[in-house]
Amino acid sequence: MLDPTVARWSKYLKPSPIVGLGLGLLVAIGCAIYSITLGTRNISLAVIFNSFTQFDNSFDHLIIQTVRLPRSLMALAVGAALAVAGAAIQGLTRNPLAETGILGIEAGGALAVVGTSFLFGSSTPSDYAGAAFVGAGIAAIVVYGCASLGPGGVTPLNLTIAGAAIAAFIAALTTSILIVSQSTLEEIRFWLAGSLVGRDFGLFLRVLPVLVMGLILAFALSRQIATLSLGEDVATSLGQNTMTIKLLTVTSMVLLAGSAVAIAGPIGFVGLVVPHGVKFFIKTDYRWILPYSAVYGAILLLVADIAARLLIQPQELPVGVMTALVGAPVFV
User: Fold this and answer.
1) pLDDT in tens, 306-332
2) pLDDT band for position 15 (cuts 50, 70, 90)
3) Residue 290: CA count within 13 A, CB half-sphere
4) What are the structural domains of the chain?
5) Closest among 132, 265, 255 to 197, alpha carbons compared
6) E-assigned strands of the chain?
7) CA–CA distance, 73 with 204 (Å, rounded to integer)
């Protein structure tokens, strides 16, 4: 039997979830600093620091402020968006395999971008961003609608099967367009692999408010998602309007996935790997799972981007390839 004194103090010795969140933020900052130091040109930490405190338009300062810092910020934002979207959809559907890529939401955004390039020729990054949001939204609606037609309605199994089928169909359409149009392939082939190289930072700043809205909406729904993860009957008995919660959660996922696709192209498995890793420490409380997923999703994608730059120097791999190397075994 546990000693009463030990039992009384054990609750104070147990680490608070805020500790893990704080450690994650420190790791993210450290990874971002290291990411900024990487590049074909060696730049000292002192010069990097001076670029923030005493910017003088020198070549080194411009590289840091216009190339390396934006790339790190985009990796952090996209990683957070994909991880939170994955965690939210897993809680909503009670399906541990659910993820925006597996359910076809990212594929829908990619098809819309490819279709825009094919139909209208060379388009602006803003056009691609708008197409990505529309495509992601339509894909989410189609997958959810197909799943609702199966036996038992929108069950975890039906949603996974519908998502896999729609994602395969969308991928076939995307591939067909690229085979027919060589110019479209040349224009967006690197984007389709999921990459942060040469991304438009101005587009990122325009998309960022939408991404932040998606995060805020997901965090605001965390308590309701936690209840829904226990079962729809439980949520209904506690007075939740489950249909409204589902629609709002899907809206947040579309905002997050659409933003990620618009910024960096389709990057898979982040929304699958991170929530599962987080749940080793935060079991079922989505009030903590979602913030943890945001922080550690940002870390995962930034580390993947660093690895993509270091693995075959001086060349680099698309970051989507690195996340697939980690995520595919986890999915299997």
Assistant:
1) 988 888 777 788 888 888 887 777 767
2) low
3) 26
4) 21-36+44-73 (no CATH), 95-331 (1.10.3470.10)
5) 265
6) none
7) 9
